[in-house]
Amino acid sequence: IVLTGGDDRLWKTWGFPDGNILMTGEGHTDWLSGCCFRPSGTQLVTSSGDTTVRIWDLSRRGCILTLRGHSRAVHSCTWHSCGDFVASASLDGTSKIWDVNSERCRYTLRGHKDSVNSIEFLPFSSTVLTSSADKTLSLWDAR
User: Fold this and answer.
1) Measured between alpha carbons, how far is 138 from 132 in angstroms, rounded to an integer?
2) Which of 1, 107, 118, 137 gives 20 to 30 Å between its CA and that of 87?
3) What's the CATH number where 84 sits?
4) How many angstroms separate the Cα of 138 from the Cα of each of 72, 103, 116, 128, 129?
5) Quick one: the chain helix, strand, coil %, rounded to 5?
6) What is the number of domains present in the chain?
7) Of 112, 109, 113, 115, whose CA–CA distance to 127 is shortest?
8) What is the pLDDT along the chain (143 residues), one digit of tens a residue?
9) Name one GO cellular component term (predicted).
10) What's the N-to-C CA distance of the chain in angstroms?
């Protein structure tokens, strides 16, 4: 299964080798910039130009949580390997670590001087890597 998101504001899961669409999700009001499966495979996270990050439950086929807090488009999103945290990177120059269980922002990472374009948790670690339009990479301790 492959997961994609695009300018049509939809995410889609695709089956292979046939390439058929298995599921489609709608709810964002602007383009999708990122999408990622939860490590358990039961949910996914999406980021969008509408400034939100959304959690989707695949069995319910719908959005179960909308995370708001960025002031501009969200460029990237990812799950932590434990499945309890999501990270997002935004055009507003910040990144956020979201606690999915409490449904709130745990940390806002500030320090880049331009948009934050990508974010990743290092595997099985509390370290986060961000890249920015300010031409820097940063490592953050998210504990």
Assistant:
1) 8
2) 1
3) 2.130.10.10
4) 20, 25, 10, 8, 6
5) 0, 60, 40
6) 1
7) 109
8) 999 999 999 999 999 889 999 999 999 999 999 999 999 989 999 999 999 999 999 998 899 999 999 999 999 999 999 999 999 999 999 999 999 999 999 999 999 999 999 999 999 899 999 999 999 999 999 88
9) axonemal central apparatus
10) 32
